[in-house]
């Protein structure tokens, strides 16, 4: 079974009477020849790695080797625990957990690329927020990873997921879209609602450039992951309320592809434009990589 579009995915789910996550598991079982239990166990290992990165990050206030990131997860987690967060528990938890994961990546810790290392904070951010606030069981979070995988597979096959190919819209945009659809499915939404959430989230980040300061996946990448969790929850809420994307998800993905192709090389992970070429950005690069003669 091959699914090439979100439209095909919805039809397949309706025909098979399965969730998006279940469809992904079925496809992986057929394609790999492995037993379902083995595949689920492999995915559970990835969820555990995500949890370890979150748990480590919310306690570690040390700086990354670059000195330009680190410690913000602890600040956010403490602020949230004081009951000061304006955005409520779901989003503020997701923000803290996203920071924790992305900062762990900057410190060269183990993370799970979802779909890339540069966007690895969004999915664990929303998953473990749901776990903390809803009590969503780990076995359901594992199925959520299958949901995200299916959505990401369609996006990757129809467009791109790397900043070098299509800008940050392809990394943080794709991860946010995957997370939004996953939230919907974990909250009992239909496949069609999940796909609508995916479209709404991706539309919100079209055109986002990839301009890492000094070429490192830290500034502005880490905080963009955090913002992605907020968008994912907002898109999920809209979809669960019955709000639909006026532009079908497949067309949104197509638009992302065309925008990425039109995006200049300076704004696609080269650190030759955007924030990377601000005065402060150039000073950071000089401090880290240029030796005085």
From TrEMBL:
Known EC number(s)? 4.3.1.17
Gene Ontology molecular function terms on file: L-serine ammonia-lyase activity
Q: Known catalysed reaction(s)?
A: L-serine = pyruvate + NH4(+)
Q: What class of enzyme is it?
A: lyase
Which InterPro entries does this one have?
Answer: Fe-S_L-Ser, Ser_deHydtase-like_asu, Ser_deHydtase_asu
Taking every annotated instance into account, which residue ranges of this chain make up the domain Serine dehydratase-like alpha subunit?
16-276
Query: From which domain of life does this come?
Result: Bacteria
User: Is this entry keyworded 4Fe-4S?
Assistant: yes
Q: Could you list this entry's UniProt keywords, alphabetically sorted.
A: 4Fe-4S, Gluconeogenesis, Iron, Iron-sulfur, Lyase, Metal-binding
User: Which cofactors does this gene product need?
Assistant: [4Fe-4S] cluster
Pathway, per record: Carbohydrate biosynthesis; gluconeogenesis
Name the family: Belongs to the iron-sulfur dependent L-serine dehydratase family.
Name of the protein in its database record: L-serine dehydratase
